[in-house]
Design goal:
447 residues, 4-stranded mixed β-sheet, globular, binds pyridoxal-5'-phosphate, Aspartate Aminotransferase, domain 1, 7-stranded mixed β-sheet, Aspartate Aminotransferase, domain 2
């Protein structure tokens, strides 16, 4: 397959971003969604809309999927977040089936009422022990945990000081909680210190929540946690660390960067998701205070007014924690790390660059959005399922193909993926040089 095999792309399908449609104008709330749909559909008709895909039989290393127009694809799968390949682990499947047989499929209540089950109570204890933190609150999704911990703790007179690349759930929680939001340069603790100094210079009365992540999901990098936690103590601020991507999958013991940086049990508040390594939806917030747990249970809406994890979800995650915490878990992490290092090495040999430090997230640099879209459109035909990431999820001009590695990927899966990426990029580059010229930066279709 070469560049000529693809239909010519209208220049406006190579430019523009979702940001253009975030604040549509006009009184017609429904009608004003159409600008986005027109732009999206232009991309869809040109094969440049790789989002909202569906897998046929789960997140396996080779997967069959279809795009949102029903076009089928099959290929090596580097688009799933099942980092330790636990979603299809026989013991996890058996646990889910047994639990469904015994308890049915639904929690049928909020955790604040009678939605808890013996499985969710046991899961809270397991996470507490795993993180060396005394108290844990469960949430129906990781997103709910991130939003819920921020909105649950922060009031309008308080301040939020947040890494500028913190996840959507944390940003949305911040926006809902207060107008006093201060972003600091990514990973820059000195910048954070300057902000804290300014805030405390004027306001000693109100709270400050400092927010960061253990492993950033687009850049695969991490903050100095001890320094940040010490800063928080110095300025009477509270630190929250989102460990969605590193907990379970990184470090010999699977404690992620909190473990690697010797901060186990020493962070004020740890928030995480089960959806990357722990084979289910769901999330948690851990602290060392019973009062914080009880407060969040009744003042953090996703934990109070949303139904609890189903019994099968809680039992599945509990089983996943047991495996993560066992010898088998160590072996899976070593397999994952070996795959990550192989992928990074083979990408370099193929002349492809990537972002960040070794982790299950290996984002391959593309640069311009137009080029990245043309690369991404070739991947399904060539046999690779991988996600395109572009502005505003990452800075403009820093589009990338995000490869998410699983423990069960084979060496062959990895070499196939690298070969496909190399071919796709070479072909797309030619096409971009011809057609992409018209797609001048800044040229936009009407919102
Ligand atoms: C850093 C981070 N936090 C929170 C979440 C939300 O987790 P979930 O998908 O389990 O709701 C995600 C998932 O995309 C994430 O990447």
């Amino acid at each position: 397959m070469n560049g000529d095999s693809y239909a010519q792309v209208p220049p406006s399908a190579l430019t523009g971003s979702m940001r253009d449609f975030r604040v549509p104008g006009g009184a017609d709330l429904l009608g004003r969604t159409e600008g986005f749909y027109r732009w999206q559909d232009l991309r869809r008709q040109s094969g440049l809309w790789p989002f909202s895909r569906a897998t046929e039989d789960g997140p396996k290393t080779i997967c069959a999927a279809q795009d949102d127009s029903g076009n089928k694809m099959r290929g090596v799968n580097f688009a799933s977040q099942d980092y330790l390949s636990l979603a299809s682990h026989p013991d996890i499947k058996a646990t889910a089936i047994e639990t469904i047989e015994r308890c049915g499929v639904h929690s049928a209540g909020s955790p604040a009422l009678v939605g808890n089950t013996s499985h969710s109570v046991a899961l809270e204890h397991k996470i507490s022990e795993f993180l060396a933190m005394e108290h844990v609150v469960l949430y129906p999704t990781g997103w709910g945990a991130g939003f819920g911990v921020v909105k649950g703790l922060v009031r309008s007179a308080d301040h939020i000081v947040m890494d500028m690349l913190a996840h959507s759930c944390l940003q949305e929680g911040a926006n809902a909680a207060t107008n006093n939001i201060h972003l600091f340069r990514h990973l820059d603790n000195n910048y954070c210190r300057n902000i804290l100094t300014k805030i405390r210079g004027k306001d000693k009365q109100n709270g400050i929540l400092v927010i960061t992540e253990g492993l950033f999901s687009m850049d695969s990098d991490t903050p100095q946690l001890l320094e940040l936690q010490t800063l928080c103590h110095e300025f009477n601020a509270t630190l929250v660390v989102d460990v969605a991507h590193d907990l379970g999958s990184l470090g010999k013991e699977g404690r992620g960067h909190i473990g690697l940086q010797d901060m186990l049990g020493k962070i004020d508040v740890v928030m995480g998701s089960f959806s990357k390594t722990f084979a289910s939806n769901g999330g948690f917030v851990a602290s060392n205070s019973r009062a914080v747990k009880e407060y969040l249970r009744f003042y953090s809406a996703p934990a109070t007014f949303s139904n609890a994890l189903s019994p099968a979800q809680a039992a599945t995650v509990l089983k996943a924690f047991d495996i993560v915490d066992s010898f088998e878990g160590r072996v899976l992490r070593l397999e994952l790390l070996a795959n990550v290092m192989t992928l990074r090495r083979e990408l370099t040999e193929a002349g492809l660059e990537y972002y960040g430090d070794p982790s299950a997230i290996v984002c391959v640099k593309m640069g311009s959005e137009g080029l990245a879209r043309l690369v991404s459109r070739r991947l399904p035909d060539l046999g690779l399922v991988a996600n395109l990431v572009e502005f505003p999820a990452v800075p403009k001009g820093a589009a990338r193909i995000r490869m998410q590695v699983m423990a069960h990927h084979s060496e062959q899966n990895i070499s196939d993926a690298v070969e496909i990426l190399k071919t796709a990029k070479a072909e797309a580059q030619q096409e971009f040089e011809i057609f992409g010229q018209e797609a001048a930066p800044g040229k936009r279709i009407a919102a």
